[in-house]
Amino acid sequence: MRSLMLLAAAVGCAADPNIWPLPRQYTNGTVTVTVDPGLSFTGTQSADLTMAYGRYKEQLFPHTGAQAGSLKSCQVTVADGSAKLVLGADESYTLDVSATGCKITAKTQFGAYHAMETLSQLVVFNFDSDAYVVKDTPWSITDSPRFEHREVLLDTSRHFQPIASLKNIITSFTYAKINTVHWHIVDEQSFPYGSPTYPKLAKMGAYSNFERFTQQDVKDVVEYARQRGVRVVVEIDTPGHAASWCKGHPEICPSPTCLMPLNPATNATFDLIKGLFKDVQDATIDGIFHIGGDEVNTGCWTKSSSISAWLQQHNMTADQGYEYFVGRVTDIVLDLGMIPTAWDDLWTHFGTNLNKKTIIHQWHGGTIAKNATAAGYRVVWSSEPTWYLDHLQYTWQVLYQGDPCVGLTDAECSLVIGGGGEMWG
User: Is 295 a catalytic residue?
Assistant: First the structure.
């Protein structure tokens, strides 16, 4: 994947450097400098940076027996080498490479990671001379992301991914400076997440006893990602996409033959959701929680005599019951001290009735991002079909040309925290 990303950068424009994504600002010269395979990173030290120095030395120099080079060290200066990984963490950096040295400056270790990634893309192996080189020095690069949230969705419900696979994918994200895993961990097809509070969800709802994640597995993935500057935002979709829940807890579903949306007429549903969300919070470190909310067909509610009676008793239509459900789930997330994100179906249904803290995740086209930001809501942009990665008919060029802020004012664009590609199935 790394080579494909760099090839994409190269194909984009012959005059551009092979750096992915293209830095905000850069200048370069015409001199080729050899790099010593024993290159050391000196300067700021922290536990996170020490691990990063080791990773990038392996990434920089994959071939053994290379010739010695003139560039033997890179000076790293980081203001805070142990910064907390949160939405909006500073990822800016500068990188200077010349015949006389290499210098990285960053405000946090996350910016330093990006600088080392950029350096690894500048260093190439010359098979004719058996030497590592950086062409076109001196390089002076100043870079920072346009958007603070840059995600790829991983769906481990429809297609289970073992921990080793998830880690490999996360590693590949760093090559393109993607900083967020949107972990769609469960869905109607299977429930692989092993909730300590509600173990029957995975015991009964997973594809098999071998296709499950323990609480420690999730913590392990989160920490692996954190060490690479990648946030993990977990999605537990409610009230739809939840048929797999019913195998372990049928009491929260409309009926044995009509499984979803989850039953809004019993507090047992919301008690389970609260305990489940708390378990996820205990395994993760991010302040954002994705509650899903999409593609809700309330037909099972109207077919259930008990739910229909409950709706009537509370003077609600089925759609108002949907709004009630979303409101309670939103309050659960807020009470846990997290920020809810939800698919744009909620915006389409309920508009400004949604809690203002809710982040709207646009997946339909049209003017949703425009309307939501105009009303003061933050937005994540993943418009189907071009940013749905399972739509294989779209080339990387089409995906790369997508812009979340087309048609938005500067003030509206400032509320678009970012976007990403969604890899379903």
Answer: yes
Looking at 58, 235, 251, 295, which residue is catalytic?
A: 295
Residue 380 burial (CB < 10 Å; 0-12/13-18/19+)? buried
The CA distance from 276 to 194, in Å, is 10
The encoded tokens of residue 248 equal 């372990």
Cα 144 to chain centroid distance, Å, stands at 18
Query: How, if at all, do strands 131-137 and 231-238 pair?
Result: unpaired
Write the Ramachandran bin of 295: left for phi over 0, alpha for psi from -120 to 50, otherwise beta: left
**DSSP assignment string, 254-302:** S-SS---SPPTT-HHHHHHHHHHHHHHHHH---SEEEEE--S--THHHH
Do you know the residue count of the chain? 425
Three-state secondary structure call for residue 77: strand
Tokens of 39: 């290159």
pLDDT digits (tens, 9 = 90+) for 364-409: 989 999 999 999 999 999 999 889 999 989 988 888 888 999 999 9
Q: Per-residue pLDDT for 1 more than 60?
A: no
22-56 as b/e, with b when 16 or more CB fall inside 10 Å?
A: ebeebebeeeebbbbbebebebbeeebbeebbebb
